Amino acid sequence: MLSRGLLGASLAAAAVLASVLIAVSVISANSSASERPDVTATEFAGEPALLRGVPQDGAVLGARGAPVTLVEYADLQCPYCAQWARAALPELVRDYVRPGRVRIEFRGLAFLGPDSEVALRAAIAAGQQDHLWDVVHLLYANQGAENTGWVTQDLLDGIAAAVQGLNGGRMLGQRWTPQVERHLVAASDAAERDRIAGTPAFLAGPTRGKLEPIALSSLDAAPVRAQLDGLLAR
Length: 234
Description:
Elements: E1 3-4, H1 15-30, E2 56-57, E3 60-61, E4 68-75, H2 79-87, H3 89-97, E5 102-109, H4 114-127, H5 132-141, H6 153-162, H7 168-173, H8 178-193, E6 198-199, E7 201-206, E8 212-213, H9 222-232
Parallel strand pairs: 4-5
Antiparallel strand pairs: 1-6, 2-3, 3-5, 4-7, 7-8
Helix pairs in contact: 4-5
């Protein structure tokens, strides 16, 4: 079952609907919280060798000229998003992204609570140095239970130190800049436009062409692979 929740975050719009949908999302996500490890800030599971050598450009992973684009909507506190990142992303990077066939655009949302926004701002700021995907990968690998304060300064410092080539001080200092704010609003507006009702959610299509939603029947790579293979065969 996928996490359900409000995505509106165009900051003020849809506030009434937000209270209902957030409640559903939190209840659903908390039901599996006991299944997730309570990590510490020093563990840093998942050293990002998976992404080494793969081009990154802001929120995009993969070659600029890849013929197909996959868009991922996610909340960094969503346990289902983390599960998808562990179960499906490595396979997609290996078979589609590294060979230059597909590029993936991350559109981060922060609807589960305060830790979502703290984590997302750090990831977006890292994207200004083309390391968003490294930070996202490590946040998922070290994900804690929702809104327990798991996104600590120590965790962010450690993640910054673990990503080769990332200036951690610059990343942390840019979290509240207008550029990050614009990115947050743009992703939220896009989610509203695309009628995203929960995370993780995906769209795919020709690069610079029309994107279509992918119906997730599971959190492994199979549903996404089927869509990508169809697009690449055109």
